[in-house]
Write a sequence for this structure.
């Protein structure tokens, strides 16, 4: 094997030789440099392979001595792996820097680059304390040199600050080294580690180590003493930013890894000290990044935060399934995940020349229309956020599990909160970049145009958008260097993801999700038309669904598989209505459906969580496709991932208390925990996903602003995931919480208030999709209420409502999709009288709203009957009354919906609209047939649901023929149907008998105060339909929740503003902060003042 | 089997005939009483019959479309169904109707059936006044639903059942057993809600009959209107029977004729109460009636329910 | 004894450097303060390696290896200081060059006029 020394010598040697090489020509020289780097990469990769195989470290002593007299270099498998990644990233970075459009690197820049690489190698390999200092300085000086070549003139100011800070860090490190040497008499890290418990345990020793560790920490750029680093990131060439973040920082972390055993051996104060430092370094920058307007500066904050997380992971032992047995795996994976992802983002910033961040309509949508770049950026952002399937996800899981297992609840909170903040700013960046160019990112509620000006305003905005479209396209080509380096980084990330995924031990269902997405992505790349993709998806999912449930007994698991897959397959038919290509749509839908299926099949908390996250991600990317969905998807992403983080917290607490938590799989109560906090967090997480009142503000706009087919899927299929999770965690919610009140009682009240509030808000929407979205919220509230009963009938009801909701909401949303497609508007008052033009859609909507409102004889009544019976049976009287009231409200908005669209006066320009395409109607009528069937024969649905609930509760109803009898009452759906048919037919026949004298009249032929109206706009009563209701309720209908969350957002902004003001930009302030940091570490080590 | 169906059909016809004729006469009588109160002579008590015959005898009618055509059908079907799901006379086979199909919940939701259909039919006429009437009516309906539902829940809690027959059965044995006296709060809430349900003053803004024509029937004429007038009788009858069953002990006697007489007296009194209130108070605006129902009656209803819980 | 005096002096020098670094507005003075700080550290290293009355750590005929170990000044800190001085020199030079570029850009040699990047 190649000796470690060779790598150092070769780097240095090539750096010295490079000016000579450049005699061959600039281009040739950079190519040769790339070859050299490739050789380095080969060397380190070779080491990795053989060291992982052999399990021993590669050691080299220098200058003919042996340690401790010599400076020892050592490479373990972990080091080799890190060096491989660092080298590959350096290679990619050099490609990017030497092959870009402007400011191509050459000459001294390449020389300094190799010196920087040398320093990084040295930091990773050296086992000598003073040598660490030398390599630190070599890296530092090369960085300063490189900085000075940046174009931005502000870089000198930044570099100066950097030098002051790193000078102070060096001083601390040297003082520390001096003390250590004085106490131990050796500089070999191995010797010092061995001697530490004795020689360094004295106050003087601890003092020295305190200097030492502060020096190292400062080099890691910890908040709150890192303003100089942030300034540097902002001013530096993004290529240098990538190097700093991916290469230099990665190597520096290894210094802490080396020193940590010394610290831990010398005194117990150091582990908490490093934990606190790591926590602060993670959380503070995440808050500071919220308000950044420079993308590079934001990435700087993100980088220092990620390193903070790595610092935490170095100290916290891993737990949970992935990596649990491998030492240092978690920090290493986090580190490499960060290095690759962050370098990618810096390169994208360089390639697009777009350094804007934050939120607002003026920001460029620079990734729109550049699918390849978008995919790469998305991968990087998701990886940084620690989302599956990227390696950081598994590491974060193990870290969080480890935190909970170690009882570090405070740190757990810090990690989760920091992660959430990171979601906000990184997710926002991604969304702003990929949004539609027309979208000014403000749409979170219905938009009513100023009257009569609408058509003109549309025309103007249309023209403007056309122009910006063109300018977006002109931004065009990505430099070849960036293409290669981004490709290399993405390959690296993909490889690491696959490796981590296979090593994580998650089961086949999760893998199938990714395979499905990948397969359809390939179809997209092959330019297969949407229709063909949809057919393939329908066939594939049907086959998969059938094979998954055929032969299996009816359980919660197979029931939900049927619900998810069946519901989605039927709705996929609607995609056949749209010709052409819509990149990613089918892949994401398939991914969403398969991740829902994976959720049912999960056999461990990890699998549940992976499936949940994958579901969140695929649905997020579906939502964000909407034309005006930017603001909505920011909310969607933030709330969904907040929900996921809460779930993670719940799982970690539950697992810490009971290692067997959640290992059953797919049955009711699998995720039962006896830890009250875990139960509360789990409930909160699910409530967010279900859009419960107070946590619902993401729901309406996400459902409404998504593309029409996506809205229908999200509302009818996706929303049931939360219900499934409630059932999985069922046992957690019954235990008394406080003062004898159990969590399920709280859930019940939340459910019924959600049902009421959702209905109330639906009442006042002019936009049909917002009406339906709020209606979904309301319906989910009923399901939560029914579930919270924790009784046989309650659970049957919850499932019945879920099935029914899937059917009618699928119908309604698809019918609306067809109508919007034909009329080009979503505002109900702009429609009207469509019944004669779109009769099939009318029938579908009619049946849909009857099914929602629970009017007999259709299936909706079954849900109502079950619900009230179950509620009264359990003595939940007030909830029952409130539920009935909100069901009346539902009747109101449903009538408004059907009236405003189909009845009343038709607009003249709608005289020629045609019926919705067959592909959109077919799924509606499939659902319609199912609804009629279960209305006639309720036992077809209720009996299987009873079977599903049976394992948890014995049946509390009995059947006599078609009559279901509870302890309170009875209902015979079949007889009701016949009676209704009877009483309906009798008058109908009479009317038909006298029909001969009936004349059909045309539009406007009405008695209207002796005048014949002729403008539908002034005759169609539809706008502000329930104005009197609004008047009656007055301020009760104010958007309190919206206001609350605005307040939260404003507070976060204020906090961010306050925190970032700490970084004043003055080097002397920064120096003072560093001194204070030292003092703080001293205080922490002392345990107080 | 055939015989069974035929017998049931015959019983249904008898039951419907009784309630329809009775309710028509009742409506006519009440109109006359109201006229007397206002110092007018008023119509003859059989005026509703004349109206129905007249409407159906029109030579022409106009239709605005299929849904308009079906609207009155829905409406009448709703009225018929509502009545048929209620056992009108306790213990009588003839008047038990189709109450085996479902309990109180079914009945409460079936009321929506006719209203929805009618509203749809009225909507297709394209007349804004119809739609305005519907909007007002539905809004007011949700408001009085709340106290009504609370009182029903209180009853269900009190008797441990949602079956109307069983609720009536539990009230037998003297008037002190009537829910009106065993559960007065529920009765008060329910009876106030009933005012809204019957659409008389002060809650008559829905169909504002005296001024410009407004409300769902605005565009309805000839046999459509006739059907609505028939329904008005049956539906009102059904509602009064329901309230009689819920709060006033139902109509029960071993002699069917006596039982019918009891029903007549009780429902007459219930309707009289509506008429008296209607004659005494001016009309509320929609938002006023919403606020009214969500105020005192709701509080009373909640009190009734809470009393059952403690 | 000598070690103690040197240590105290070293820390004094460092404190002086820090004071200069923190209190001066002029960039060149800040850099001088920085150099003082560096020199203080170097002094500390030397102090820790010093042995009172020790000989130079040179292997010559009169003194064997054992004599060297027991009687000579520790040579390693001296070697370290040499390295550190070189590094310090490089950093100081870079700082000066950056200061020149900052002055060229903003026409001000004062630190508080050179803080465009913040927050």
């Amino acid at each position: 094997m190649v000796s470690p020394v060779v790598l150092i010598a070769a780097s240095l040697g090539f750096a010295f030789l490079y000016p000579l090489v450049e005699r061959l020509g600039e281009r040739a020289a950079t190519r040769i440099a790339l070859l050299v780097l490739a050789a380095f990469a080969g060397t380190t990769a070779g080491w990795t392979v053989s060291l992982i195989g052999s399990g021993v470290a590669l050691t080299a002593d220098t200058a003919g001595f042996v340690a401790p007299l010599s400076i020892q270099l050592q490479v373990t498998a972990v080091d080799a792996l890190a060096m491989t990644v660092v080298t590959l990233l350096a290679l990619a970075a050099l490609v990017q820097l030497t092959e870009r459009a402007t400011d191509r690197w050459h000459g001294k820049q390449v020389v300094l680059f190799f010196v920087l690489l040398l320093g990084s190698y040295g930091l990773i390999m050296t086992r000598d304390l003073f040598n660490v200092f030398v390599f630190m300085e070599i890296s530092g000086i090369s960085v300063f040199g490189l900085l000075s070549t940046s174009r931005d003139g502000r870089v000198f100011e930044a570099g100066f600050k950097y030098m002051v800070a790193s000078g102070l860090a060096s001083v601390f490190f040297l003082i520390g080294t001096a003390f250590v040497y004085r106490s131990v008499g050796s500089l070999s890290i191995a010797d010092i580690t061995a001697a530490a418990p004795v020689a360094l345990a004295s106050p003087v020793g601890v003092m020295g180590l305190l200097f030492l560790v502060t020096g190292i920490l400062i080099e890691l750029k910890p908040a709150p003493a890192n303003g100089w680093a942030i300034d540097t990131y902002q001013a530096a060439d993004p290529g240098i930013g990538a190097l700093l973040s991916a290469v230099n920082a990665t190597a520096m972390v290894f210094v802490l890894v080396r020193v940590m055993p010394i610290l831990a051996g010398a005194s117990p104060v150091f582990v908490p000290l490093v934990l606190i430092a790591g926590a602060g370094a993670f959380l503070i920058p995440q808050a500071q990044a919220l308000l950044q307007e420079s993308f590079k500066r934001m990435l700087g904050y993100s980088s220092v935060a990620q390193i903070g997380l790595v610092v935490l992971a170095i100290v916290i032992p891993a737990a949970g399934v992935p990596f649990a047995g491998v030492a240092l795996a978690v920090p290493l994976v986090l580190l490499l995940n960060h290095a690759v992802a962050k370098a990618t983002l810096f390169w994208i910033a360089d390639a697009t020349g777009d350094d804007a961040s934050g939120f607002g309509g003026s920001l460029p949508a620079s990734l729109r229309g550049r699918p390849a770049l978008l995919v790469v950026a998305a991968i990087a952002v998701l990886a940084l956020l620690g989302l599956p399937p990227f390696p950081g996800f598994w590491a974060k899981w193990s870290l969080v599990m480890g935190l909970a297992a170690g009882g570090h609840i405070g740190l757990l909170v810090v990690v989760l909160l920091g992660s959430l903040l990171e979601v906000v700013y990184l997710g926002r960046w991604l969304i702003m970049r990929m949004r539609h160019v027309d979208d000014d990112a403000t749409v979170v509620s219905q938009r009513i145009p100023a009257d009569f000006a609408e058509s003109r305003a549309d025309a103007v905005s249309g023209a403007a958008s056309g122009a910006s479209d063109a300018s977006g396209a002109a931004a065009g080509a990505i430099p070849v260097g960036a293409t290669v380096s981004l490709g290399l980084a993405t390959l690296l990330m993909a490889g690491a993801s696959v490796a981590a995924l296979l090593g994580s031990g998650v089961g086949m269902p999760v893998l199938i999700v990714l395979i499905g997405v990948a397969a359809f992505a390939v179809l997209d790349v092959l330019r297969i038309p949407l229709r063909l993709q949809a057919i393939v998806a329908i066939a594939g999912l049907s086959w998969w669904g059938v094979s998954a449930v055929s032969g299996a007994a009816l359980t919660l698991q197979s029931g939900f598989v049927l619900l998810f897959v069946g519901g989605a397959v039927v709705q996929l038919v609607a995609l056949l209505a749209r010709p052409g290509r819509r990149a990613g749509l089918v892949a994401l839908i398939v991914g969403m459906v398969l991740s829902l299926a994976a959720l049912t099949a999960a056999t461990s908390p990890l699998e549940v969580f992976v499936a949940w996250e994958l579901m969140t991600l695929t649905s997020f990317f579906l939502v964000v496709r909407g034309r005006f969905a930017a603001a909505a998807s920011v909310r969607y992403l933030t709330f969904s991932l907040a929900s996921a983080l809460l779930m993670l917290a719940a799982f970690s607490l539950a697992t810490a208390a009971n290692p067997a938590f959640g290992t059953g799989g797919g049955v009711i109560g699998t995720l039962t925990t006896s830890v009250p906090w875990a139960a509360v967090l789990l409930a909160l997480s699910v409530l967010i996903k279900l859009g419960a009142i107070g946590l619902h503000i993401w729901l309406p706009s996400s459902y409404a602003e998504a593309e029409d087919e996506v809205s229908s899927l999200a509302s009818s299929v996706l929303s049931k995931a939360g219900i499934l999770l409630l059932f999985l965690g069922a046992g957690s919610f019954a235990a008394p919480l406080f003062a004898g009140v159990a969590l399920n009682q709280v859930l019940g009240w939340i459910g019924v208030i959600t049902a009421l509030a959702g209905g109330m808000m639906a009442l006042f929407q002019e936009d049909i999709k917002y009406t339906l979205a709020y209606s979904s919220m309301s319906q989910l509230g009923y399901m939560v209420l029914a579930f919270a009963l924790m009784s046989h009938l309650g659970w049957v009801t919850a499932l019945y409502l879920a099935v029914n909701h899937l059917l009618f909401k699928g119908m309604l949303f698809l019918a609306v999709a067809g109508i919007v497609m034909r009329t080009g508007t979503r505002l109900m008052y702009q429609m009207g009288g469509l019944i004669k033009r779109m009769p099939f859609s009318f029938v579908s909507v009619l049946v849909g709203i009857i099914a929602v409102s629970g009017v007999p004889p259709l299936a909706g009544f079954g849900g109502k009957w079950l619900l009230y019976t179950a509620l009264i049976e359990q003595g939940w009287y007030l909830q029952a009354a409130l539920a009935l009231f909100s069901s009346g409200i539902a009747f109101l908005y449903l009538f408004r919906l059907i009236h405003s669209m189909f009845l009343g006066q038709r607009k003249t320009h709608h005289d020629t609209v045609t019926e919705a395409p067959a592909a959109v109607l077919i799924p509606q009528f499939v659902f319609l047939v199912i609804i009629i069937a279960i209305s006639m024969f309720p036992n077809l649905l209720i009996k299987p649901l009873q079977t599903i609930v049976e394992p948890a509760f014995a049946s509390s109803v009995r059947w006599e023929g078609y009559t279901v009898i509870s302890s309170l009452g009875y209902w015979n759906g079949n007889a009701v149907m016949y009676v209704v048919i009877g009483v309906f037919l009798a008058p109908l026949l009479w009317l038909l008998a006298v029909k001969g004298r009936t004349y059909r009249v045309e539009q406007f032929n009405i008695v209207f105060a002796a005048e014949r109206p002729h403008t539908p706009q002034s005759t169609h009563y539809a706008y502000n339909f329930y104005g009197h209701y609004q008047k009656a309720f007055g301020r009760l209908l104010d958007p309190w929740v919206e206001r609350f969350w605005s307040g939260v957002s404003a507070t976060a902004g204020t906090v961010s503003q306050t925190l970032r003001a700490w970084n004043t930009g003055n080097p002397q302030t920064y120096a003072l902060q560093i001194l204070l940091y030292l003092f703080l570490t001293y205080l922490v080590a002392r345990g107080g003042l | 089997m055939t015989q069974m169906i035929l017998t049931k059909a015959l019983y249904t016809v008898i039951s419907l005939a009784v309630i329809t004729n009775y309710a028509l006469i009742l409506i006519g009588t009440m109109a006359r009483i109201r006229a007397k109160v206002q110092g007018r002579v008023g119509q003859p008590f059989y005026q509703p019959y004349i109206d129905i015959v007249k409407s159906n005898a029109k030579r022409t009618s106009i239709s605005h479309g299929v849904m308009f055509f079906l609207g009155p059908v829905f409406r009448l079907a709703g009225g018929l169904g509502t009545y048929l799901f209620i056992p009108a006379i306790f213990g009588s086979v003839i008047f038990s109707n189709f109450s085996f199909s479902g309990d109180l919940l079914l009945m409460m939701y079936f009321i929506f059936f006719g209203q929805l259909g009618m509203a749809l039919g009225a909507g297709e006429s394209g007349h804004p006044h119809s739609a305005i009437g519907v909007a007002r009516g539905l809004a007011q309906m949700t408001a009085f639903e709340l106290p009504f539902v609370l009182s029903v829940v209180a009853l269900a809690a009190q008797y441990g059942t949602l079956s109307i027959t069983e609720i009536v059965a539990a009230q037998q044995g003297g008037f002190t057993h009537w829910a009106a006296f065993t559960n007065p709060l529920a009765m008060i809430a329910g009876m106030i809600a009933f005012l809204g349900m019957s659409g008389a003053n002060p809650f008559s803004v829905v169909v504002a009959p005296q001024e410009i024509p407004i409300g769902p029937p605005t565009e309805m004429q000839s046999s459509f209107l006739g059907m609505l007038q028939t329904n008005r009788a049956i539906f009102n009858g059904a509602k009064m029977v329901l309230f009689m069953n819920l709060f006033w002990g139902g109509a029960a006697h071993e002699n069917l004729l006596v039982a019918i007489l009891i029903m007549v007296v009780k429902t007459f009194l219930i309707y009289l109460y509506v008429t008296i209130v209607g004659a005494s108070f001016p009309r509320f605006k929609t938002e006023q009636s919403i606020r009214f129902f969500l105020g005192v009656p709701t509080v009373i209803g909640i009190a009734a329910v809470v009393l059952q819980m403690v | 004894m000598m070690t103690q005096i040197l240590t105290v002096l070293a820390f004094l020098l460092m404190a002086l450097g820090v004071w200069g670094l923190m209190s001066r507005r002029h960039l060149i003075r800040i850099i001088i303060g920085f150099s003082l700080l560096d020199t203080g550290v170097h002094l500390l290293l030397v102090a820790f390696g010093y042995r009172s009355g020790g000989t130079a750590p040179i292997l010559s005929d009169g003194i064997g290896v054992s004599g060297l170990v027991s009687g000579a000044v520790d040579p390693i800190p001296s070697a370290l200081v040499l390295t550190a001085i070189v590094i310090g020199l490089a950093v100081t030079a870079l700082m000066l060059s950056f200061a020149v570029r900052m002055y060229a850009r903003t026409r001000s040699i004062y630190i508080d006029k050179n803080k465009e990047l913040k927050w």
